[in-house]
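Sharing a chain and its predicted structure for anyone who wants a worked example. Both blocks are below, sequence first, tokens second.
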Amino acid sequence: MILNSFLEGFLLGLGAAVPLGPINVLIMSNALRHYGAAVALGSGAMSADITYLVLILFGLFHFMEDPTIQMVLGVAGSAFLLYLAWLIWKGRNTPIHLQEVGRVTLFKNWLKGYTLTLLNPYTVVFWLSVSAYIATKQLDPGATVVGLFSAILLWITLMPLAIHKTKHLFSPRIVALFSIVSAAILAFFAVGMLVNLING
């Protein structure tokens, strides 16, 4: 029961962490320049997930289902995504070996990941789905959550490590192109989120 719940949670975590989304785009973009910054960003996103988990545990999650709350989150999240896209585009020609990252920058990256995930209405939908899934399949909640976060933790540490270790293979032109594409993808997600909110 516990092992099965852990494995199902692990698979759920991979399903949530691996697909290309705003957070993964930001992690990959940061990993080219600094491994710690990328992990800090992923940790911020995971911290937001934990925040929602705590809200569920204390029965405070129901207010997140309010359409007005989701609309506010969506608009704020879209605006924040566009801002991050602009930052990446602006720094597209910054050499990857010249960027110094200190504690303040690491915290800023953590805050970016936390804020973006917290403002994403799809995060709300995901956690509501996870709660329903656990209840429907009668899984052990603790083991499922541990499995889920184990998968996310592995992804946000190993994926940026692989990119960072191979950054010497990227020429300045490729890095600049990667930044432009990343900015475009983030802008696409921002517009898509707004369109879904309007049509929803």
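Comments welcome. The chain has one domain: 2-199.
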